[in-house]
Structure formats: structure tokens, C-alpha cells
Design a protein that fits this description.
The protein is mainly alpha-helical. The chain has one domain. The protein has 15 helices and no strands. The radius of gyration is 21 Å and the shape is globular. Keywords: Cell membrane, Membrane, Transmembrane, Transmembrane helix.
Length: 394
């Protein structure tokens, strides 16, 4: 049994590390990569379980893709599985950005052809994920209407809390539309965490949020200041990596921890690496206080995500079995499809597709994913090569 568990953990680490090296394009694209790898190819979970996990990550603050990755690891290999899944997906980006902080601040790689190719890859991957999830989660007229309505409202109403508000609205609509529907059997998510452990995690989340600012005033240690700043940013942000940037800027630039030019240079570098955008904190910590600062900042910004997903998963698993909650989740999952579709247009499509040649490459990559069933890591390589060729030829 122990040997089997070690094998599972090695499997989780191997898959998540490969995703950590190849998942370009931001949090919505990451959910597409996860869907392709964990649901389509490996069949670790069905569409319903994955969609419900994504819905939970949209409800709670923090980096959605990282929380989904942690949740997948927990369901596959327990607490240790969540840890190795997080490390595999996150460390490649952390190491790359810390190296950028030390070595590459003076280089402009934002316009490199292979970077543009990777942005185009994100278009194909997200479109593929939306196609698959839309067929499963918005199969009838009512849920398709919720998805389309959410898509329209997200594009027209872009605020920090708009996505959360629209998910809540979709839950209410789903609750009303499916109020007379019989309870459907939903297979339990395999979550090997107790309610007691989950409650401790939630208590730690709120306790640290309250205590850290107080301790910072009493003990003016550099590392404590860093940890508090990044913990608060990670705990209070909804909407993913781009939303956390203004919070981080307010925390580190006025305090003199990082200069404005270094902040902007690091943000440019963060767009060029795979994995979660929250690892931008690793860069800022390295600029402020070297390797130790990078580790403190990384731990600070991701700890809230860890505590929240571990603290809510067991309760979420029970709630999703309730008939009324199932109706609400019909609406929520349809809304998630709409949110993904909105993100496909902006910022993914509007950032990546600048010409008809770019669009042609995106369509070709989409065809390789859908019809030729090529794995996402191969699409990444082809896309990077295609972006380089476009830059050289056009």
C-alpha cells in the first residue's frame, strides 16, 4: 500500500511538473491544460467533479488555477498529493522568475517570437477546454442561456468582484430553474480530509489574516513584513493573477521594498514564464531580499490558497450532494463556461492574435488538439516554433 501511494505521489509530481513547464497563458489557460490532462487524457475525474472543483475555486479568493491543482492533488493522493501537485506546478515558474530577478532584468523578451507563439497556444488550449466543458455543462437551452448571458455580462462589466457576483446570480437562477428536479446521484469527490482538519485550516487562514499585521507592528523584522504583505495580497484577491498586481504594487513599492522600474520589469518577465502568475511574488521577494526573500514571499502569497482549498473541500463535497445545491451548481457550472469564454476573448485572444497569420496558427493548433489528439506539451512546442517562424518570415 505504501509503495502504491509513493507511486501515486510520483505520478502526481511528474504530471504537475510537466504542466508547470508547459502551461503558458494565465489562469484560464491553466484550467484548460488541467482539463485536457486530468479529465480527457488520464480520466482521474469526470467532468462534473472537475467543474465543481473549478466552481469552488471561483468562489474563494486566491489563484484559481493553483487551487484547482492543489485540489486535484488532494483528491488523487491526499494532503501529500496536494503538496507535490502544488510544488510541481509552481516551482518551475518560481525558479525562472528568481533567475530573471538576478540575471535578466535588462533583457526585453516580451516581443520574442516564441513568446508570441506561446500566447497563441493559450488561445487553442482554452478554446478546446470550452468546447469540451460546454458540451457537458451547458447541454440544454437553459444552461446555454446562462453561459451566454454570463459571457456577455463579464465582457460588459469588468470589475474585481463581477465574476463572483455573476456566479452567485447563476447559482440563484439554477436553484430556481431546477427546483423541481429529482436529486441526481453524484459520485463523491475522493477527499481524504476530515472536517476537523478543514476547520483548523480555515481557523489558521483567518487567524493569520488578523494576527500578522499586529505582529508586524510589534516586531519589525524584514521577513515578517514581507510575509504579511504577500499573505494579505494572496488572501484578499478575487479574479486571478492580474488582479493581484495592484495589491502587490501598493504593498511593496511605497514601502521601498521594490522600485517602480523593477516592479514593471518583473511583471513583463512574469508574462513569459509558465505556471501561476502569483509567482511574480517570488521575483519581488528576490529583488527585496535575495533567495530568502523569494522563499518568504512565495510562501506568503500561496499559503492562503492552500488553507482555503484544504478548509473548504470537505464541506463542498457534502454541499454538492444536496438537491438544492445541485440545482445551483447547474447554474454555476454553466456560468463558469461563460467566464472561460469571456476570458478566451479578453485578455487571451486580444493579446495573442494580432494578425491573420496568428489566427491561422491558432486554428492549426486547435485542430491538432481536437482532431489529432496531440498532448498539450507537444502543442506548446509546435506553437513556440510557429511563433518564431512568424517573426522571422513576416
Amino acid at each position: 500500500m505504501e509503495k502504491q501511494k509513493r507511486g501515486t505521489l510520483l505520478e502526481i509530481l511528474g504530471v504537475s511538473t510537466r504542466l508547470g513547464f508547459t502551461s503558458f497563458g494565465g489562469p484560464i489557460a491553466h484550467l484548460g491544460y488541467f482539463h485536457d490532462e486530468y479529465v480527457k487524457r488520464r480520466k482521474w475525474f469526470d467532468e462534473k467533479a472537475y467543474a465543481d472543483l473549478v466552481a469552488l475555486s471561483q468562489f474563494i479568493p486566491g489563484p484559481a488555477s493553483s487551487q484547482v491543482g492543489i485540489g486535484i492533488g488532494v483528491m488523487r493522493g491526499g494532503l501529500a498529493g496536494g503538496i507535490v501537485s502544488f510544488l510541481g506546478f509552481t516551482l518551475p515558474s518560481v525558479i525562472a522568475l528568481v533567475l530573471f530577478a538576478f540575471l535578466l532584468q535588462g533583457f526585453d523578451i516580451g516581443n520574442a517570437g516564441w513568446i508570441n507563439g506561446l500566447k497563441i497556444v493559450a488561445v487553442a488550449v482554452v478554446a478546446h477546454a470550452i468546447l469540451g466543458m460546454g458540451q457537458k455543462l451547458a447541454p440544454d437551452r437553459e444552461r446555454a442561456t446562462i453561459a451566454i448571458g454570463t459571457l456577455i455580462l463579464v465582457l460588459l462589466w469588468q470589475t474585481v468582484y463581477s465574476q463572483v457576483a455573476l456566479i452567485l446570480l447563476a447559482a440563484v437562477i439554477g436553484l430556481w430553474l431546477y427546483r423541481g428536479t429529482e436529486k441526481k446521484y453524484v459520485e463523491d469527490m475522493p477527499i481524504p480530509l476530515t472536517y476537523r482538519f478543514a476547520s483548523i485550516c480555515l481557523g489558521l487562514f483567518f487567524g493569520l489574516l488578523i494576527l500578522l499585521p499586529i505582529l508586524r507592528q510589534i516586531f519589525s523584522f524584514q521577513w515578517l513584513v514581507l510575509f504579511d504583505s504577500f499573505y494579505r495580497a494572496g488572501a484578499l484577491v478575487f479574479g486571478g493573477g492580474h488582479v493581484v498586481l495592484p495589491l502587490l504594487e501598493r504593498e511593496v513599492v511605497p514601502a521601498g521594498l521594490v522600485g517602480e522600474e523593477a516592479f514593471l520589469a518583473g511583471y513583463g518577465a512574469a508574462q513569459a514564464v509558465p505556471g501561476p502568475l502569483f509567482t511574480f511574488a517570488s521575483y519581488l521577494g528576490a529583488i527585496s531580499d535575495g533567495w530568502m526573500g523569494a522563499m518568504v514571499a512565495t510562501a506568503g502569497i500561496f499559503l492562503p490558497a492552500f488553507l482555503l482549498i484544504l478548509g473548504t473541500l470537505p464541506f463542498w463535497n457534502v454541499l454538492r450532494q444536496n438537491r438544492r445545491i445541485q440545482g445551483a451548481l447547474y447554474g454555476v457550472n454553466a456560468a463558469v463556461v461563460g467566464i472561460l469564454a469571456a476570458a478566451l476573448y479578453h485578455p487571451i485572444f486580444t493579446t495573442a492574435i494580432q494578425s491573420s497569420v496568428d489566427f491561422a496558427l491558432a486554428i492549426g493548433l486547435f485542430g491538432l488538439l481536437v482532431f489529432w489528439k496531440l498532448p498539450a506539451w507537444m502543442i506548446v512546442i509546435i506553437g513556440a516554433a510557429g511563433g518564431t517562424m512568424i517573426q522571422l518570415m513576416f
